Amino acid sequence: CHIREDSFQIFGFLKEEEVALFRMLMTISGVGPKVAQSVLGALPVAEFGRAILESDVSAFTRVQGIGKKTAQRIVLEMKNKMGQDPELSKILGEPGQGEPDLAGDDVYEALISLGCTPPEARKAAAHARKELGDSAADNELVRVALRSLTRVK
């Protein structure tokens, strides 16, 4: 439901994930209900998540009503929100086939709290554990994981 002074609009969705993404999109400057609905109409939830995780601005510029700056803002703000919102991270950044779910892992959680996306945190934590071993202290693992992230980019 979207209420303004001059209109009362109701939007319907088939999945709860779409409702959550719609609401999250509405918090981004320059994105109103029409644009948010266009995004969700053009990009299924899985494709939306992939575009955010891979910083695929062009996926959003293909949506009618979205220019390059708005697309960049969507990618940036949604990535930031993923690091802060566990529910959004679950919707967009679930582990793929054969990847462990690291929720509750102190190193993974520390990286998430520092703003890493779930895939970045998962990859960096795995790299640190491979380099130092599972018996290493968490603070050392986080340090090595952060260093690996700076080298990757």
Q: In words, what does this structure look like?
A:
Strands 1-2 form a two-stranded antiparallel sheet. The chain contains nine helices and two strands. It is mainly α and 153 residues long. The longest helix is centred in the middle third of the chain and has 17 residues, at 68-84. Helices cover 63% and strands 3% of the residues. It has helices at 16-26, 33-42, 45-53, 57-61, 68-84, 86-92, 106-113, 118-132, 138-152; strands at 2-3, 8-9. It is elongated. The model has no long low-confidence stretch (mean pLDDT 79).
Provide a concise account of the structure shown.
The chain has 153 residues and is an all-alpha fold. It is built from 9 helices and 2 strands, in the order E-E-H-H-H-H-H-H-H-H-H. Helix 1 packs across helix 2, helix 5 crosses helix 6 and helix 7 crosses helix 8.
List low-confidence stretches. Answer: none
Adjacency order of strands in the biggest sheet: 1-2
Rg, Å, rounded:
18 Å
Q: What is the rounded distance between the termini?
A: 40 Å
- By helix and strand content, what is the structural category? mainly alpha
Helix and strand string, N-terminal first?
A: EEHHHHHHHHH
Largest sheet data? 2 strands, antiparallel
Sum up the overall morphology in one term: elongated
Total of helices: 9
Number of strands: 2
Q: How helix-rich are the residues, as a percent range?
A: 55-70%
